[in-house]
Design brief:
The protein is mainly α and 85 residues long. It has one domain (11-73). Helices cover 69% and strands 0% of the residues. It is built from 4 helices and no strands. The chain has helices spanning 3-8, 13-32, 34-41, 49-73. Helix 2 packs antiparallel against helix 4 (49-73). The two termini are 22 Å apart.
């Protein structure tokens, strides 16, 4: 990718802000309702899947925010160059 194409590429600021707000909201809801959540998660049976599902939701949203955050800051993974033999 040329330097011109890299400058032209839009940064996902809006998506970063949105996923950041959702992430903060999820953590606030979790901490504000700890008693209810602990009571339901400890019931056993099918309720044992709730902590796992919750962890996946938190992981996805927070990971999405973090990925967009680093992209907005300009930090990208190094790309390997193909060697011609």
């Amino acid at each position: 990718m040329s330097a011109y194409e890299q400058k032209k590429k839009k940064k996902p600021v809006g998506v970063m802000v949105l996923t950041g707000i959702i992430s903060v909201g999820l953590y606030f809801a979790l901490l504000a309702n700890q008693d209810i959540i602990n009571a339901n998660f400890a019931k056993g049976g099918i309720y044992a899947l709730l902590p796992i599902a919750t962890a996946f939701v938190f992981s996805y949203i927070h990971g999405s925010f973090t990925g967009h955050f680093w992209t907005v800051l300009g930090v990208e993974a190094a790309r390997k160059k193909l060697e011609v033999k």
